[in-house]
Amino acid sequence: MTERSLNDAPQKAPAETPPSPSAGSRPAGVSPAELEVLVATEEAKGDPALDEVEPVSIEVPETDRDEPFEKLVARAKKLSAERVRAIVEALLFLAEKPLSQEEIRAVCGVDLPRVRKALDALSGHYREGVCGIVLHEVAGAWQLRSAPDVADYARRFLKVKPQRLTRAALETLAIIAYRQPVTRPEIEEIRGVDSGAVVKALLERKLIKILGKKEEPGRPILYGSTREFLEFFALKDLASLPTLREFHELSEEHRDIVEKEGPAEEGPKLEGLVSELADPALRAALQSRQAAGELALEELERAISGAEATSRAAEAALKPEQTEPAAPEAPASPADPAVPEPPPGEKPA
Predict the structure, then answer these.
(1) For position 22, what pLDDT does the model report?
(2) pLDDT at 1 over 70
C-alpha cells in the first residue's frame, strides 16, 4: 500500500470527553435547570473517604463570664467621648427595639450624663435631610430608622408594603389619644357609628390597651394608648401630639398631603373629626354637664348633712332626760321663830 493510500484512508476521530457539570459549559441537550440539579447532586455526594470519620468540634467553648458591673463602670470612666459615642452608635445599630438611656448604661457602664451627651451628638449627625438614617427618640427611648425621603427605596429593597391604617382606625386612635382614658360609648358618641370592631382590631395590634373600668353604672371599660402607639407614629411622648390649634394652622398644601396619604374611604374627614373635637357647642355642653353634676353633688351633700342633723335630733329626743337630783334642804331649827311649829297630825310644808 502506497503512502498516498495510507494518508487517504479514513481515520477514526478521537472520542469526545463530556465536559464536567462544573466546567462552565453544559452538555448539549441539558437545560440550565437540569445542570443545576446535577451540580447540586455532585456536591451532595461529598468525599466518600470521609464517610466513616467523626467530625470534631471546631468552635472554642465559651469559658469567660460577664465582667462585673463595678469593673465595667471603672473601665468606662477611662473612655473618651468619641469612644463612648462609637459604643452607643453600635448598640443602637444592633438593637431591634428602641433603647433607653438606662439600658445603654447597663451594657457599657457609662454614666447617664455622658450617654445623653453621646445621644445628642448622634442625633445631630443622624438628622433628617442629611443622612439616610435618622436617630429618633420614640416612647422615651432611642432608635435608628430610615429617613422618610428614602422610604420608597427601602420598601422596594425589603419587598414590604407600607403599613397603613384605615380612616376608621385613625379616627378612633385620634379620639383615644386626645381624650384618654375614654370609654367605647364616648368614642361612638363622637364618631356616630359603632366602633366595636375597630377597637378590637386596635387592641390586637397593641396600639391601645385597657386601663380599667369607669366608676359609673355599667362599669364601661376605659381605653388608652400604648408604647407601641408611640413607636408606630415615631412620637417621643403624648405631649408630642399636635394640638388642635396646630392642626387648624396647617396650610392648604399640608392638608392636601394628609388627604392624599390617607386611604380613600367614605366617611367624615379627619379635619371634620378634629373640628368636632374642638366644637364650642360640644365643649359648652360638656361644661354644662359638669356644672350640673357638681350642683347635684352639692345638693346631695346638703341632703346628707340635713339627714345627719335630723338623726342626731331624733336620737337626743328618744333618750331619757338625765337631770341632776336636787340637794336636800336642811330641816328648820326649833329655835327659829320664823318657822312655826306644825300642829300635831300635819306634815310640814
Answers:
(1) 47
(2) no
Nearest to 277 by CA among 165, 169, 173, 164: 173
CATH 1.10.10.10 positions along the chain are 69-158, 167-281
Three cell numbers at 56?
470534631
Answer whether 235's CB lies under 8 Å from 139's CB: yes
Q: Output the CA–CA distances (angstroms, integers) from residue 330 to 50, 210, 327, in the order listed.
A: 135, 84, 9
List % helix, strand, coil for the chain (3-state, nearest 5). 50, 5, 40
pLDDT digits (tens, 9 = 90+) for 114-139: 999 999 999 888 887 788 888 988 88
Q: Determine the Cα angle at 187 with ends 185 and 192, to 5°.
A: 90
Fold of 167-281: Arc Repressor Mutant, subunit A (1.10.10)
The C-alpha cell that represents 282 in the structure block: 360640644
Tell me which residue has cell 391604617.
165
- Mean predicted lDDT score pLDDT of the chain: 76
The more confidently predicted of residues 284 and 80 is 80
| Strand blocks (E) in the chain | 133-138, 141-146, 182-183, 208-213, 221-225
Please state the pTM of the whole predicted model: 0.50
CATH number of 69-158: 1.10.10.10
Q: Using CA atoms, how far apart are residues 222 and 297, in angstroms rounded to an integer?
A: 23
CA–CA distance, 52 with 65 (Å, rounded to integer):
37
